[in-house]
Every structure is written in structure tokens, then in C-alpha cells.
Amino acid sequence: MSSPVQIFGPVISTYVRIVEIVCEEAGLAHEVVPTPAHSPENRHPFGKVPVVHIDGHEMYETVSIANYIDTAHNGGALRPADPVRRAAMERWIGVGNSYLFPLFERGLVMPYIMHRYAGAELDKGRIAKALPDIAKTLSFIDLEMQRDGAWSNDGFTMADIFLYCILRGVELTPEGAAGIAQLQVLPLWMVQCRQRASIKATRWESET
Ligand SMILES: N[C@@H](CCC(=O)N[C@@H](CS)C(=O)NCC(=O)O)C(=O)O
């Protein structure tokens, strides 16, 4: 039996969870080795997490790790073969990584993490400043889903994994939960994702 995939990063982290879910989908044993992003033990050259040990290789950057696992261990099942559908899936992963995650993380998710886990005062000013953009962005996603299904027409793909993890952090804040609940399609999609075994198996402790 091969050794478990080692995922170095914090136990509660969007990108750590993405790798955990992809491992689950591929049937690979995995473990999180708790490693804060800015600790000396973190070997990511840009100070991010996760760094992953798999098949004798050390890897960083979640898209490349996730694609490696899907190709090497899952027959590519998480990515549509059709070039147009694959382009749409990759566009949404790009949107998630480049625009959604930075906006949500800085403006809403991180202030709550610092408040809940580091005992910092909740930075209400930062949240209030970010909320209009966050609300606009959530509406954009919902309208795209209403219009053509966005990434959600191809069964369960890599885009579902990235976007669920990015949006779940938002949903675990009071403002994010209220914002998502008033949309039409996004909350239904989130509920549907939660039925997936890989998503159930990787729930954060704070979700139970
Ligand atoms: N481009 C990186 C981004 C990963 C990322 O942003 N991870 C967050 C945690 S979920 C992080 O390292 N945050 C610490 C920081 O930005 O200082 C990847 O895809 O792996």
C-alpha cells in the first residue's frame, strides 16, 4: 500500500481542502500535516499553502496538484473531455482563484477566522467595506448559473471542487450565509455539493 498523500497547510484552509477532496475522489489516502502558511517549515516559495508530497514528488500550486492527481490516479474523471466544456470549467476555476478567493478571503473570511481562532476583534470596518463588492459578485455568479448553468452542467468536476471550497468559507460567515441564501441557484448547488461523499468526508470541524 502506498503512503498517504501528505498535505502541508493549516487544517482549515480552502486550498488544503481542495486537495483533500481531489484525493478522496481518486481514492487516495491523505493526511494534513498542520503547517501555517508563514512558518519556517512551509516550503512554498511564495509563502502559500498547501505544499504536497505525493508519489515521491513535492508539489505546490493547487491547480497543478489537483490536475496531477486527477490524471495520474483518477483517469481524468474530474475534467470534461469536450474542449469547449473544459475551457468553461477552467475559466471558472480561474475566476475562482483570481477574483473570488482574494475578494472573499480578505474582505470577509479572514476577519472571521482571525476573530474566531486567533481571538482578534472582528474587523467590522473591513467587512463593511468589502460587502457591496461581495454581494455584487455573488449575484453575478448566480445570474451566470441561471443563464447557462455556468460550470454546473457537466456533472461533478474540478470546478465544483474549487468553487465549493471558495464559497463554503463565505457561507460560514453570517453575512455570507445571508447573502447566499437570498440567491436563486447558488444555494441549491451548494446543498447538492454537500451530498457528495468527498465533500462530506472533508468537512471542517467547524461545519459539524
Ligand atoms: N496559488 C496558490 C494559492 C493558495 C492560497 O492562497 N492559499 C491560502 C490559504 S487557503 C494561503 O496560503 N494564504 C496565506 C497567505 O496568502 O499569506 C495555490 O493555488 O495553491
From TrEMBL:
Record key words, sorted: Transferase
Gene3D superfamilies: 1.20.1050.10, Glutaredoxin
Occurrences of domain GST C-terminal (ranges): 82-208
Record-level GO cellular component terms: cytoplasm
Pfam families: GST_N_3
Domain GST N-terminal: residue ranges: 3-77
CDD domains associated with the record: GST_C_family (cd00299)
UniProt keyword annotation of Cytoplasm present: no
GO molecular function list: transferase activity
PANTHER family for this protein: GLUTATHIONE S-TRANSFERASE OMEGA, PTHR43968
Name used for this protein in its record: Glutathione S-transferase family protein
Source organism of the structure: Pontixanthobacter rizhaonensis
